[in-house]
Amino acid sequence: MRQSATAFAPASVANVAVGFDVLGHSFQAIGDRVTARRIPERTVRIASITGTSTDLPKDPEHNTAGMGVLSMLQDLKLDFGIELSIEKGIPLGSGLGGSAASAVAAVVAANALLADPVSKIELLKFAMKGEQVASGSVHVDNIAPSLFGGLVLTVGIDNPNVKQIPVPATVRCVLVHPHMMLSTREARQILNRSIDLSNVIWQSANLAGFLTGCFTGDLQLIRESLEDVVIEPQRKLLIPGFQAVKDGAMSNRALGCSISGAGPTVFAWCEEQDAPRIRDAMVAGFTAHGLQSDAWISTLDRVGAQIVD
Ligand code: HSE
Questions:
Q1: Of ligand 1's atoms, which has the minimum distance to the CA of residue 262?
Q2: In terms of pLDDT, which residue wins out, 156 or 260?
């Protein structure tokens, strides 16, 4: 029986412009790492939090990783406890699914300590309990891609159907993270509670077109569909320079460009050969508005959370 295990869970781009709260993709270049250790007391303890943000609650009930493992311990009636060491690689309040990645890495690491490990779909439910602590609402569009990997659609909350969607092999994702923080709670609170019927139709067409484009490898259809007409117009006001960043991406042949999760990180999908130019143009857009940023380019491989040690 393992006494300890370390898991890495990748960052994620939630919504992917057209699937608010239901679509997301993993982003392998960055992520969180959690080590779970067996302890005799039947409790969850957080031993350390290191990395990009250390000022997070150590009380397991108020920590995404802690809460995920606590619900696992209770539901599975484990006869031992778990101590967690959390290494944050994802910046806090960046829109890159940091709280979800910590919860996912924690439950994946804890699962490796069990005599009878549970399925990924069970782990998803435990990680959801963790994510709820951070965002105050239940959505799985960061957790599911971080856990399963690649572009992931989740239908349903209580018994979620999780489907990995194929992505054409030449597609890359460019992520540009400006050095500022946005709270997911606030970015959800500002959203209008009602939507024009015409926008519902437009967004539904875009989601259907985008998924069809992914399944059929039709880059032109992806290009025409990858546009958020509901959430982005409201949230872009929270991100200084957003329009310049998006214009930089689109004028350099991006397939689409929008807000990653609740922001402020901005993502663009593009073809491989265009990615470096698009990255530079997006970074320049933030610089012109006085914001330094970090940028990454990644494939959209189906690689989710994994045991690394
Ligand atoms: N779908 C969520 C949102 C992701 O955009 O609010 C952020 O956690």
A1: 5
A2: 260
Report pLDDT digits (tens) over 108-138.
999 999 999 999 999 999 999 988 887 777 7
Domain boundaries, the chain: 4-164, 171-298
Residue nearest to atom 1 of ligand 1 (CA): 21
Dump pLDDT digits (tens) for 236-264. 999 999 999 999 999 999 999 999 999 99
Closest CA to 226 of 242, 243, 208, 244: 208
* 115 to 7, 69, 102, 196, 258: CA distances (angstroms): 17, 16, 23, 52, 43
Q: Is the CB of 235 under 6 A from ligand 1?
A: no
pLDDT greater at residue 55 or residue 80: 80
The strand ranges marked E within 100-178 are: 151-155, 161-165, 171-178
Q: 98 C-alpha vs ligand 1 centroid, how far in Å?
A: 12
pTM: 0.95
Q: How far is the CA of 21 from the centre of ligand 1 (A)?
A: 6
CATH class given for the domain over 171-298: alpha beta
Q: What percent of the chain has a predicted confidence (pLDDT) above 70? A: 100
Tell me how far the alpha carbon of residue 281 lies from the centroid of ligand 1, in angstroms. Answer: 25
Task: Report whether residue 14 contacts ligand 1, using a CB cutoff of 6 Å.
Answer: yes
Distance in Å, CA 40 to ligand 1 centroid: 37
d(CA 47, CA 60) in angstroms, rounded, equals 10
CATH topology of domain 4-164: Ribosomal Protein S5; domain 2 (3.30.230)
Terminal-to-terminal C-alpha distance of the chain: 14
